[in-house]
Write a structure and sequence with these properties.
Layout: H1 3-34, H2 41-63, H3 68-89, H4 94-135, H5 145-184, H6 195-212, E1 216-223, H7 226-233, H8 235-252, E2 258-263, E3 266-272, H9 276-291, E4 305-311, H10 319-335, E5 340-344, E6 351-355
Helix pairs in contact: 1-2, 1-3, 1-5, 2-3, 3-4, 4-5, 7-8
């Protein structure tokens, strides 16, 4: 079943609860208005069918339909038609009629907005027309005290139930929206931020550093000879290496640090409020620990990292320039032997190298 089918079944389940309650309370309201009119037995039978059996029949009809969403909209139009029909049957008794029309309208607005309110209004008018042909009503201008009390449960309980259902739906949609947003910002293989989400965080950190006159560092991490790993040990082994690095980043970084997968075998880390020398110590410890990892599937596999670091430079006008400094430091680490950390000062001359012994 596609998304439309799942959506339709979800709608049918929600409406099954509200329809069952609403029509049961509506049966009380309509019965109190109809009783003084001494209706024919078939009218009582139709009232009992509408109030007690129709909610279950409508649900099964929608559930077994090829298009549950459209089937449920059809059921709602049937509800509106019958609502109009009972308004005429009650001889337009003011309070029961107004209550019936108002509850139907509220339901239609909650489900389909103005467009469905209008569609439901047309269905109600059609029901009124059919009812007029059958009952030839005489307007009843007064509502008795008994009829007033019979309407109160529908007026009080049904809006409460419908409001609760709408609240739960809004809460569910909000949670799903947050989950989708998180998925759209997360790399599926590593669970870290993806390229775009990490660069958004870099821009935020860059602006924070400029605004608060504070420093920080960023690191670009490259897995050495990753293509050779894929070619020699297979892409499954390559994926394991990527996940191992992401796991190590999550375990060894501070809560305030932001790690992401920049693309392919490159990772990136934002290290707020950390001096370049301290960031170099952290990254070199990471490099050293990662180099000692073993892989059960490929015992001979040993993997090293090349890391480029750059400190925030107040002279930079753009976060891209900060990233470019780290990229140049990474390039130097890769071209001077790999398996090392190179620190770029943000300007050209000062460089610090930490490499394996």
């Amino acid at each position: 079943m596609g998304n439309a089918g799942v959506k339709g079944l979800s709608l049918a389940r929600r409406l099954y609860t509200s329809r069952t309650l609403g029509l049961l309370l509506g049966l009380l309201c309509v019965s109190a208005a109809m009783y003084p009119l001494d209706p024919a037995p078939w009218v009582w039978g139709m009232m009992l069918f509408n109030g007690l059996l129709w909610p279950h029949l409508a649900y099964q009809w929608a559930r077994r339909s090829q298009a549950p969403y459209h089937a449920e909209h059809r059921n709602l139009l049937v509800d509106a038609f019958l609502g109009g029909f009972w308004v005429v049957a009650m001889q337009f008794n003011p309070l029961p009629s107004a209550t019936t029309i108002a509850m139907m309208a509220m339901n239609n607005v909650a489900i389909g907005g103005l467009r469905f309110l209008l569609a439901g209004g047309v269905a109600q008018l059609l029901g009124i027309g059919v009812g007029y042909l059958i009952f030839r009503p005489v307007f009843v201008p007064e509502t008795s005290q008994l009829q007033l009390y019979a309407c109160l449960p529908l007026m009080c309980l049904y809006p409460l139930a419908l409001g609760w259902i709408c609240f739960r739906q809004a809460h569910t949609l909000g949670r799903q929206k947050r989950e989708l947003l998180a998925l759209s910002r997360t790399d599926s293989l590593t669970g870290l931020l993806n390229h775009g989400a990490w660069k958004d965080q870099l821009e935020i950190e860059f602006q924070r550093c400029r605004r608060q006159h504070q420093g920080g560092a960023i690191a670009l991490i490259d897995i050495d000879h990753f293509k050779t790993i894929n070619d020699t040990y297979g892409h499954v082994a390559g994926d394991i290496v990527l996940r191992q690095l992401s796991k190590m980043l999550k375990q060894n970084l501070r809560a305030t640090d932001v790690a992401g997968r920049y693309g392919g075998d490159e990772f990136c880390v934002i290290l707020p409020d950390l001096p370049l020398t301290s960031a170099a110590v952290v990254m070199d410890a990471l490099r050293d620990r990662f180099a000692t990892l073993g892989y059960e599937q490929s015992p001979a596999l040993k993997v090293s990292l090349s890391i480029g670091l750059s400190a925030f430079n107040p002279a930079h006008t753009d976060a891209t320039l900060w990233l470019n400094d780290a990229d140049q430091a990474l390039y130097e680490a890769k071209t001077t032997g790999r398996n090392r950390v190179i620190c770029g000062s943000g300007g050209e001359p000062e460089r610090e190298m930490l490499d394996s012994v």
